[in-house]
Amino acid sequence: MSTQISNDEKQENQKIFIVNSIEATVRIGLVVLVIYLCLDIIRPFFVPILWGLIIATSLYPIQKWLTAKLGNRDRISAFLITFTGLGLLISISIGFSSALILNLKVFSKKFTLGENIIPAPPESIQDWPLIGDPLYTFWLRATQDIDAVLIQFAPQLAKFGESLLASVGAMGVGFFQFVVAIIISGVVLANAEISKDFSVRLMTRLVGDNGPAYADISGKIVSGVTQGILGVSLLQSSLALAGFVMMDVPAAAVWALLCLILGVVQIGAAPVIFGVAIYVFVTNDSTLTSVLFMAWSLVVGVMDNILKPLVMGRGINVPTVVIFLGAIGGFVTSGIIGLFTGAVILVIGYTLFQAWLADSLDLPAPDDSTE
Question: For residue 217, is it within any domain?
Fold first, then answer.
């Protein structure tokens, strides 16, 4: 009799377990479905939102200082920062577009009139070892019969034109994404304390009591990467532009923009800067001016290799190489956004690994003075 009751209880428990499992599966499935639909809905805004959070995190110290100067009016300071950011973005875009259109008009006019659009090669190029003679011959041919050169390289130029048009389209999309991102960053900055509290609570739910420390580390990493990669690249390209303008280099703004892009994508602006320096040295009549510009180019060309490690690891108790590898690896896998997400993820992983080795998770408390 007791055996029969025991079997009945087991069957009943199995039924209850099966029912509970089915209900749990359905509920989990519904939660996953809702999360998927939410992510699918905000997918067009994901990149601007992520950039907005990155910009807001980077500008938070400035907003905090400005808020104090304005009598704790955080919304006014956020509006001023947002307005300034939009103004700079639009001004730079208009300036670059105007310079590019002007250069294209001059190029088109000279080409239509049959004028030389390429300057004659200096005789000294022939003295260069290995490449001197063929380079001089090709350059001279381009100045004398540009049509023949264009016909010869027509397939390559066609592919380049397609890539250029695709890049222009991508730049247009990127411009509007950055406009939206700056507006989002303004909203986040206007609610800075709420946003900060949300990030702390989110990290606490994910990693436990060390959530505030991880939120603090993440913010410092984003600021460090912004200053170390974007900031240094912007400084380097600005100094390069100043030198190009002083030496009257054709299309100086275009070369400076290329320096900025190469700096951000971690190729480095040195090839462009040194290439322009060689061009100036070959074409400029003043030896002293050319030598001074070569020295200037050498300093500007290598400055990113010195400044980036110093800036990126500032205020973070993590080896700079970990941050740098995270930024580079993230860029390779996820593009520009990966510069930030890769660094944050790798540093958090490195910290967890170190804590596992030490069999403890003793992180320093967040430092409010550096935020």
Answer: no
